[in-house]
Design goal:
single chain; 399 residues; mainly alpha; globular
């Protein structure tokens, strides 16, 4: 994870910018901010859901919860990852120090304004963040003619979806604000699907030379395209005879793809099994989507939470631990608190998705338990990584 970092002058080394390493590279502030939002945001929404807090702000209730988990939490992690990866890909600088702090401040201001208002200012600040990130990423990628420039397009698509959310929220366009949020969630799931195919097999093979990793380009493409078609059919509210077969076919292809990566061999390597288990929630979520078309006993909302809490949340937790360890020159080996966080996030997914299916009458209890487990997972991350990400790399290199 450390290979490819460009050399810079000693003046960019840790503790040279206002006494902290926090803004030395993009993953540092944005991973911590994402974890902080995850740890606080879900319990706050849960408290509002149960009437313990009044509904307030520009977008309250489920609108705020859904928006913040995608355009706050997931977008912060994507930003931190891309700023860090682009520096490796190109050998050119991405935002650090003052510029990185300014971007983090814009993200944070958006989160505060989404709660406090006024609405027009919340929308303006929140919508401005992703285009600013896209521009900062485009400069090094374009200068080096790097093949990963398509990530800029993905960021702009996410920005357009965020704009659509705000326009729908104020009534300018006649759709539910949840539609663009759902679109953005599915786009993030597609990013996870594509990137997981790049990293999970290689991470597993590198760490476990005896792993029986098999790769099939045909299966990879089939799984990716089937998933894209299935999610598109759900967004378009297509007929059941189309949506259900597409979702179930995509689930089968995704499960076959994961099986070829030999997930069982990772059972003694938490920093690996977190990625495999998280990916397994994608075929689970697609299966639930297919079943939801035919029976009210499987609400479509549970399928979305399988993808958001289990797949996206779990994959994010796995990657922000691994990336942070690699880029601070620490061994790629999860500590006990990190393993606990891995277990907690998947217990949260299970409580949010499986418990309501097994015990529909206990839906409220499932939400409360899932919120607590999710929050505990990211509190554990913060306790471990807040000191690590605000201090220099162990090897003294910049970054």
């Amino acid at each position: 994870m450390n290979a490819g970092l460009p050399s810079t002058s000693p003046t960019t080394s840790a503790l040279r910018w206002h006494g902290t390493a926090l803004f030395n590279l993009g993953f540092r502030p944005f991973f911590l901010l994402a974890a902080l939002l995850a740890a606080l945001g879900v319990p706050l929404w849960s408290a509002e859901y149960f009437g313990l807090l009044p509904a307030a702000g520009y977008a309250s209730g489920v609108l705020w919860h859904a928006h913040e988990m995608v355009f706050g939490f997931a977008v912060a992690v994507i930003t931190g990852f891309l700023f860090t990866a682009a520096r490796n890909w190109t050998g050119l600088p991405t935002p650090t120090h003052g510029m990185l702090a300014a971007l983090a401040a814009v993200w944070l201001a958006g989160r505060v304004l989404m709660v406090s208002g006024p609405g027009w200012l919340a929308a303006a600040v929140d919508v401005a963040f992703l285009p600013a990130v896209a521009l900062a990423l485009w400069l090094p990628l374009q200068r080096s003619r790097n093949r990963n420039r398509f990530f800029v397009a993905l960021l702009l698509v996410l920005a357009a979806a965020n704009l659509a959310f705000h326009l729908a929220r104020i009534g300018t366009i006649p759709i539910s604000p949840l539609v663009p949020v759902r679109f953005a969630l599915y786009l993030v799931v597609m990013i996870v699907t594509i990137m997981a195919g790049r990293v999970i097999p290689s991470f597993t093979q590198n760490a476990i030379p005896g792993a029986r990793i098999r790769r099939s380009r045909m299966l990879d493409l089939a799984a990716i395209w089937a998933t894209a078609l299935a999610l598109s059919s759900v967004l378009a509210d297509g007929p059941a005879v189309i949506v259900a077969p597409l979702c179930l076919a995509a689930a089968g292809l995704q499960a076959a793809r994961l099986w070829m990566w030999d997930p069982w061999c990772t059972r003694h390597r938490p920093i690996l099994w977190i990625l495999h288990v998280s990916y397994a929630w994608i075929p689970a979520g697609l299966s639930l989507m297919g079943l939801a078309v035919f029976t009210a006993a499987v609400p479509a909302m549970l399928a979305d939470h399988a993808l958001s809490v289990g797949a996206v949340g779990g994959m994010i937790l796995g990657m922000i631990t691994r990336t942070a360890r690699g880029h601070t020159a620490r061994p790629l080996r999860a500590s006990r608190p990190e393993v606990a966080a891995y277990a907690l996030v998947h217990l949260a997914a299970g409580m949010r998705v499986i418990a309501p299916l097994a015990w529909p009458a206990g839906y409220g209890w499932a939400i409360a338990a899932s919120s607590a487990l999710w929050s505990a997972a990211f509190v554990a991350y913060l306790l471990v990584y807040a000191p690590i990400l605000s201090r220099p790399r162990l090897d003294g290199k910049p970054g």
